[in-house]
Amino acid sequence: MSYPAADSFLPVDQPVTLDDVSGARKMLAGVARMTPIEGSRHLSALVGAPVRLKCENLQRTGSFKVRGAYVRIAGLLPEERAAGVVAASAGNHAQGVAHASALLGVRSTVFMPLGAPLPKIAATREYGAEVRLHGQVVDEALAAAQEHAERTGAVFIHPFDHRDIVAGQGTVGLEILEQCPEVRTIVVGMGGGGLAAGIAVAVKALRPDVRIVGVQAAGAAAYPPSLAAGRPVSIRHQATMADGIKVGRPGGVPFRIVAELVDEVRTVSEDELSSALLLCLERAKMVVEPAGAAPVAALLGDPGAFTGPVVAVLSGGNVDPVLMQRILRHGMAAAGRYLAVRLRLTDRPGALATLLGVLSEADANVLDVSHVRTDPRLGLTEAEVELHLETKGPDHCDEVRDALRTASYTIIE
Question: Which residues are catalytic?
């Protein structure tokens, strides 16, 4: 999605300061939870240093977004509150704005695309917002939200490009320093950059030695070209499962902070994202959305690049169950937990049973079997079988292939 600059915002050259973040924290007392930090033995062993997870997936509304939304809306003038607020989002920002508005007694309207996951639509309504479904993608919902703001006078609440939003998100950084004072590296996902910028403001003011690493999905990475150009630039195509960081253009406010204070921006692949989500679920017992798993994906992709102790921010856990199912399958495949093999065998009674016996002995779980008997490439007595198997990992995949070859089956590559 591509959010425009907000002309009505405070000047972008006015910096966000530690005092702003500290003030935001006082404002959020009793509103945002101080989310826990949990250790990860698996990631610690991989990195060779302590790794801890900052669990913003356990925040109210399921993500960090409520922090910035509340600070932004609480700062409105009485006449602005009376006009109500409007936002556009497919998920986390929608819920953050809805909940913050309800707490502050402000009317909220949230435009969501028609294809937004039903659980996120329902949650946004339950938090008190009027939900209007418009368009097929967030950009179309965004245009409708801006038209609504111009027509009604409602205040448009940008998801990242405002000083109050950045200050609110920066409270995550203050909590990290209190909960893990020995931290040396903080890894955080980046879309528009509000969370990374806020954390950087807070942390660098108090601990300039701490390294801040931002992580973007490779298929929607607007920050690397923007940093190279020295200004926010738009990317034309965004393709990633991590919709929470799927942003086509950095915000002007966070960009200036990121350019100055964030030490490095890395990108991660879709395979790394899905593997990270699977690891969070299996090892950390954490339900995390793909955007929230981006820091873990960066650790998996290059574990030797991070000086510990490391804190990885799990920014959100609002993942649609249908998408979760697909991602977990993808993650298991990326982790070598699925194996697809094709082979030929003699088409006679008992042949398939014999093959399945070999797989049983190799401790492979058969998920699906398909036969081809009519292909002209096959002999009169031949059949081709394709099997989808669940395995224990890459080494077990090799063992299964070896068992099939030992039993005189020819695997078709």
Answer: 65, 315
Residues 304-313 have pLDDT tens digits of 999 999 999 9
- Which residue, 327, 345, 369, sits at the end of a domain? 327
Burial code (b: 16+ CB inside 10 Å, e: under 16) for 337-347 equals: bbbebebbbeb
| Nearest C-alpha neighbor of 59 from the set 199, 171, 187, 162 | 171
Amino acid identity of residue 252, one-letter, is G
Residues 204 and 351 in one domain: no
pLDDT in tens, 321-372: 888 888 777 777 777 788 888 887 777 788 888 888 888 889 988 888 887 6
Q: Are residues 231 and 320 in the same domain?
A: yes
Q: What is the pLDDT of residue 9?
A: 39
Tell me the chain's radius of gyration from C-alpha atoms: 25
- Do 227 and 193 touch, CB atoms closer than 8 A? no
How many angstroms separate the CA atoms of 102 and 105, rounded? 5
The whole model's pTM is what?
Answer: 0.84
Q: Give whole-number Cα distances, 5 to 19, 76, 89, 110, 323, in Å.
A: 24, 19, 16, 19, 31
In a domain, 11, yes or no: no
Per the listing, tokens 């690493």 go with 213
